[in-house]
Automatic annotation (TrEMBL), chain B:
It comes from the Bacteria. Residues 12-248 form the ABC transporter domain. Keywords: ATP-binding, Cell membrane, Ion transport, Iron, Iron transport, Membrane, Nucleotide-binding, Transport. The keyword Iron applies. One of its GO terms (molecular function) is ATP binding. This is Iron complex transport system ATP-binding protein.
Length: 679, 265
């Protein structure tokens, strides 16, 4: 068949609309929405007059002039800027999936803004665009530094960018938890709200974007050459480094201006250039222009649709979240059609010096460490009751204050959550033959979160069992979508990761929209999303522990399959493994484990990604010892995170999931920077 | 020039087996008998259907028409593991193995015998060691497979197939990534397995000279159809080669009785 595949001509793209037609189509959609909205706002007509010379005595005319019209202009400007930024990044990095979102630039800029707002409000006097620019530049600098050794292999760059982005987002969430009074509005900002009260934002954006666009135009010719290999480019007499730096600066500036003005608007920067390219814009100049135009039209259409759909509540629904709701399915559709450079699979190969002579001994050591952490965590801590409030105390079993009975369930829940996530990560990595797979990266955790969110909002009182079922269903659905994409794109690891990003973003967007609706249940959801073990009682903790132990007991039954699957479908089938049934079983295992863990420690912890790698680093290679080692490491990370979260900022409580991601994300980035090998 | 039926009993029987995907015919209806205990080479141009045929035999794909029987029973009636105990298959590009030592990889060949839950018995262990000895891969048994050179890695994979203890090996271009010395070494190993253990081998090869040198029987496909079948000396003639590859070829006979096909330029 391989022969046949080689001889087979490339399947032609299903249709080729041409970039102009694409922009026109989106534009018609935007125009229709605009007309519909104006008709709702000003049924009497006279729209143009109302926007240009509003009659101050008619409130709806003021609304049209100072809210609707500037919002429209900003959506066009921001969309164009993000589309252009995405196209430049993709060209500079020769990476078809680069974008302000996937490289962490948006989150970095947003985090810089949040922290400046809290700690150094004075900085904002210089102009918030400088703050966001610094944040964005720092983020991309870190990402590029970490992926340098792989020669900026697309997958490595994107992974570093995603994790850096998620890390910034978690930090921003942590800030929001502590300083909620400052940041009430910032949350909406983070989700990209376009609601405006005047012409300041368009006037802020327009000149800055014009300067950046001019710079991009000047860089056009050198950028065209960057599409080639460095050596070739250099032989044509171009200073590759300078051009690349200048172009990156332009792209980051475009993004930073948008973030400073209206917050994070995800996906436009990824979808617009990809759409423009699929529509047939091939030459660099035409492509950059088409990307900007597509971005503008896309955001315009999305924003108008949001207003049509939401009616009077339009102010509350952040358009940035909705772009993800539209953009993510779009991305899923694009992924199989993207032309990726030849897979840099070798660049992520895990290298191991020597294997553990005695995996048993290492597992025992890990177990002992875990036991120690559990003991310390439940017995030791700041004294909440005694006279020396805030001082540390030892609460032994039998102690009258019985503090340990409050602490132990939380530690046990953290332990169970870490175990489940780590096992799910191991299973997914072996199942998809992708060292970067994990519940967090692949959107399975987000699926569980989505399922739970829907359940909380649809059912008045949810029991724990109902929550578990809903979360499992969500996780399973997310996995099914992923596997469908994987099937279409022949299990290419880049595409699977991309599909995971899309699914994750889709569900995050859903949650953001619900949270922004101001529903009181949203606060509950937010607390849970950050992964707090606060308020878990003994029975819930006990049940989770039992579930985790049951999972561990089941693992030996699937160890052979987990050994065969990394060899690929053909070999596994040739050796007589029941592929369909086996895969389905493992998927369900991973989905249920992720769902249970997500209920305990939230969707953001990175343990599922880091723990299997840590186990392999310790020399635990064979399926079963890797699984158990990862489980112990995952449990250890989360028990420690829970302990730190309860004690470091006492009497404040930091959620265990968030603290774990503070540990897990840098650990992952470190792994990534160490493990990459020049392909 | 279909050769007279081989004297050896049949391993595979094909009855109008064919393969069509999305309206394209990869393999036209083909009726064929493949004998036991011989090395059969499949040759042909790119896209001639030789890999497709091998994948149909290996049950990697189901034929879209006709029937294929293995040892007299239709393929669909074989259980997955039962089939794997009889037929071993090596895909075209051996996948990355992650962190796995040679011996661990070879031991995976015992899966059809012990299954998902069965114990790894002393018999299994013995078969693994036997396979390692037979393929002379002892030196790589404790090294990570991904650190081996191409030729060494291919030998470890073949050792895995040997440990599978199947009476029939299906190999898809096992030498395409190897240098000439390793090509000879791998094919000699395959031929030795056939001679010493009576293993039936069906191997897809690109290089007609290698096929002529190591195969008992050659089947040539062209555009998804059988175009020639016979012993090497019957296939390696200017006329037949010209029909198979579509370019004029010369056959040079050496003094020792060997012969080499070269394109006429």
């Amino acid at each position: 068949m391989a022969d046949a595949a080689r001889a087979q001509p490339r399947t032609p793209a299903p249709f080729r609309v041409g970039p102009a037609l694409l922009v026109l189509g989106l534009g018609v959609l935007g125009l229709a929405g605009t007309v519909a909205n104006l008709a709702m706002l000003l049924p009497a007509g006279g729209w143009w007059a109302a926007m240009v010379r509003p009659d101050a005595s008619v409130p709806v005319q003021l609304l049209a002039a100072y809210s609707f019209a500037p919002r429209l202009v900003v959506s066009l400007l921001a969309g164009a800027a993000l589309g252009l930024a995405g196209a430049i990044l993709q060209q500079v990095l020769r990476n078809p999936i680069a974008s302000p979102t996937t490289l962490g630039i948006e989150s970095g800029a947003n985090l810089a803004l949040s922290s400046a707002l809290i700690w150094m409000p004075g900085l904002l006097d210089f102009g918030r665009e400088w703050v966001t620019l610094t944040g964005g530049l720092l983020a991309i600098a870190v990402v590029l530094l970490l992926s340098r050794r792989s020669g900026f292999a697309p997958l490595v760059v994107i992974l570093a960018g995603m994790v850096a982005g998620l890390y910034c987002a978690s930090l921003a969430a942590l800030l929001a938890l502590f300083e909620s009074h400052y940041l009430a509005g910032l949350f909406l900002w983070g989700a990209g709200s376009l609601s405006l009260q005047g012409w300041e934002e368009p006037l802020f954006l327009a000149p800055r974007l014009a300067i950046a666009a001019l710079a991009a135009a000047l860089l056009l010719r050198p950028l065209a050459l960057l599409g080639m290999e460095d050596a070739q480019t250099r032989s044509l007499g171009l200073s590759v480094g300078m051009v690349r730096l200048a172009a990156l600066l332009v792209a980051v500036a475009l993004t930073a201006f948008v973030v400073a003005s209206v917050g994070c608007i995800g996906f436009i920067g990824l979808a617009a250039p990809a759409l423009a390219r699929i529509a047939g814009a091939r030459r660099i100049g035409a492509w950059l222009l088409a990307s900007a135009a597509t971005g503008a039209a896309l955001l315009w259409a999305t924003d108008q649709m949001v207003q049509v759909a939401a009616g009077v509540y339009a102010q509350m629904i952040p358009t940035g979240a909705v772009t993800a709701l539209f953009g993510a399915p779009l991305l899923l559709w694009i992924i199989p059609r993207l032309r990726l450079p030849p897979a840099a699979a070798g660049s992520l190969a895990v290298r191991l010096g020597q294997s553990a002579g005695r995996p048993g001994r290492r597992l025992l050591l890990l177990g002992a460490l875990l036991l120690l952490a559990l003991t310390v965590s439940s017995l030791l801590g700041p004294d909440p009751l005694g006279s020396n409030l805030g001082g540390w105390s030892l609460a032994l079993p039998g102690d009258p204050s019985a503090v340990w009975t409050l602490r132990l369930p939380r530690a046990v829940a953290a332990l169970a959550g870490g175990t489940l996530l780590a096992v799910a990560g191991c299973v997914l990595q072996r199942l998809t033959r992708n060292p970067m797979a994990s519940p967090e990266v692949m959107g399975v955790s987000a699926g569980a979160a989505g399922g739970l969110t829907v359940a909380i909002f649809l059912i008045a009182e949810t029991s724990r069992l109902e929550q578990t079922l809903a979360a499992s269903l969500g996780a399973f659905l997310a996995l099914i979508v992923l596997l469908l994409v994987a099937r279409v794109s022949k299990a290419n690891p880049e595409r699977i990761i991309l599909a995971g990003i899309a699914v994750g973003a889709l569900l995050d967007a859903l949650v953001s929209v619900l949270m922004a609706s101001g529903d009181p249940r949203a606060i509950l959801l937010f607390n849970w999303m950050t992964g707090s073990t606060y308020g878990l009682d003994t029975s819930a903790a006990g049940a989770s522990l039992l579930a985790a132990l049951a999972l561990l007991a089941l693992l030996p039954l699937v160890r052979r399959w987990l050994g065969l699957l990394p060899l690929g479908e053909d070999t596994a089938r040739a050796l007589g493994m029941p592929l369909g049934a086996g895969r389905l079983l493992l998927l369900m295992l991973a989905a249920v484990a992720t769902a249970l863990a997500t209920l305990l420690v939230g969707p953001l912890s990175f343990v599922g990604l880091v723990a299997p790698h840590a186990a392999r680093l310790l020399g635990l290679r064979r399926p079963l010892s890797e699984l158990y080692g990862a489980a112990l490491i995952g449990a250890l990370i989360l028990v420690t995170a829970d302990f730190l979260g309860r004690t470091v900022a006492f009497p404040w409580q930091m959620p265990a999931g968030l603290v774990a991601s503070m540990i897990g994300a840098p650990a992952f980035l470190w792994l990534l920077s160490r493990k990459q090998v020049l392909a | 020039m279909i050769a007279p039926p081989s004297p050896a009993p049949a391993l595979f029987d094909l009855l109008d087996a064919q393969m069509r995907i999305d309206g394209r015919t990869l393999l036209h209806p083909l009726s064929l008998t493949l004998p036991e205990g011989r090395v059969v080479g499949l040759i042909g141009h790119n896209g001639s259907g030789k890999s497709t045929l091998l994948k149909l035999l290996a049950r990697q794909h189901a034929a879209t028409g006709g029937e294929i029987r293995f040892e007299g029973r239709p393929l669909s009636e074989w259980g997955t593991r039962a089939f794997a105990r009889h037929v071993a298959y090596l895909p075209q590009s051996s996948p990355a193995t992650g962190s796995m030592t040679g011996r661990e990889l070879v031991a995976l060949g015992r899966y059809p015998w012990h299954g998902a839950l069965g114990r790894f018995t002393t018999v299994d262990r013995q078969k693994v060691e036997e396979a390692i000895t037979l393929t002379d891969t002892g030196a790589f048994a404790d090294r990570l497979v991904d650190t081996l050179s191409g030729g060494e890695r291919q030998r470890v994979w073949i050792a895995m197939l040997v440990a599978q203890d199947a009476g029939c090996l299906l190999l898809d271009e096992p030498i395409s990534a190897l240098d000439i010395a390793h090509q000879i070494e791998t094919l000699s190993l395959i031929r030795r397995l056939c001679r010493e253990r009576g293993t039936g081998v069906i191997v897809v090869l690109h290089d007609v000279n290698m096929a002529a040198r190591f195969c008992d029987d050659i089947i040539a496909l062209h555009g998804g159809r059988l175009i020639a079948r016979g012993a090497p000396q019957e296939i390696v003639t200017p006329d037949t080669l010209a029909r198979i590859y579509g370019i004029p070829m010369d056959v040079i006979r050496g003094d020792g009785g060997g012969y080499v096909a070269v394109p006429r330029i």
